[in-house]
């Protein structure tokens, strides 16, 4: 695969993963991105480095930010979604939010998603999103919980949900990651929005009077 390398040293390879590439194709991947999510992906070069980096993820010491486009315009300019999270009993491919009043909420894990509106369009909001917890499909399921699914999301989107012109996948991009290296140096890795998502935004009508 011809992949763009963001950073490389003796312990770590950081790639700019394109949509359509499966994270599981990399045996020593430190974390995962959904197949149709693009952006910063960390791959360890040896077992010691893999354990070192994954420990930071487990201890929630890694900073991660995403850019996503969601259907509709949110009520608040910024906020936090804080819920229990786990696999959906009705569809094993999906994750879902659990409330304390729901059956089967015992043992479910906490997940927090922080969001901020970057730009509003007619029918859509562009968000910067940060995670605490990093559960599988966390952003996608949390956005649907807010009744604002990620644009183009076939798994979590609503039936007959409109899709922006030229969008062929879910609009979700891992744009930033900050982590400590084995030499104790802290590194930040960034990835620009890819061409397909930029093209999608160009076809939307900006809202200028939302404040």
Secondary structure category: mainly beta
- Cα-based radius of gyration, to the nearest Å: 17 Å
Number of separate helices: 3
| Major sheet characteristics | 10 strands, mixed
For the record, give the distance between the C-alpha atoms at the N and C termini, rounded to a whole number.
Answer: 45 Å
The H/E string reads EEEHEEEEEHEEH
Strand proportion: 35-45%
Average pLDDT for all residues: 90
Shape: globular
User: Which bin fits the share of residues in helices?
Assistant: 10-25%
The unreliable regions are none
Number of strands: 10
Please describe what this structure looks like.
This protein has helices at residues 47-58, 138-145, 195-202; strands at residues 4-8, 12-17, 38-44, 63-71, 78-87, 95-98, 109-121, 124-132, 172-180, 186-190. The chain is mainly beta and 211 residues long. Strands 1, 2, 3, 4, 5, 6, 7, 8, 9 and 10 form a 10-stranded mixed beta sheet that branches. A hairpin with a 3-residue loop joins β1 and β2 (12-17). The longest helix has 12 residues, at 47-58.
């Amino acid at each position: 695969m011809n992949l763009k390398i963001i950073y490389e040293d003796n312990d770590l390879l950081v790639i700019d993963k394109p949509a359509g590439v499966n994270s599981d194709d990399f045996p020593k991947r430190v974390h995962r991105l959904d197949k149709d999510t693009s952006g910063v992906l960390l791959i360890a070069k040896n077992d010691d480095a893999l354990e070192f980096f994954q420990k930071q993820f487990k201890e929630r010491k890694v900073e991660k930010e995403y850019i996503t486009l969601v259907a509709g315009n949110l009520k608040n300019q910024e906020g936090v979604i804080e819920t229990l999270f786990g696999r959906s009993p009705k569809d094993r491919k999906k994750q879902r939010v659990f409330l304390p009043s729901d059956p089967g909420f015992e043992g479910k894990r906490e997940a927090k998603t922080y969001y901020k509106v970057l730009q509003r369009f007619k029918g859509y909001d562009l968000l910067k999103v940060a995670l605490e917890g990093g559960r599988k499909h966390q952003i996608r399921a949390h956005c649907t919980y807010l009744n604002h699914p990620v644009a183009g999301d076939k798994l979590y989107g609503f039936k007959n949900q409109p899709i922006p012109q030229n969008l062929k996948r879910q609009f979700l991009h891992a744009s930033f990651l900050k982590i400590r290296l084995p030499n104790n140096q802290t590194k930040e890795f960034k990835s620009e929005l890819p061409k397909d998502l930029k093209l999608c935004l160009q076809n939307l009508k900006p809202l200028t009077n939302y404040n």
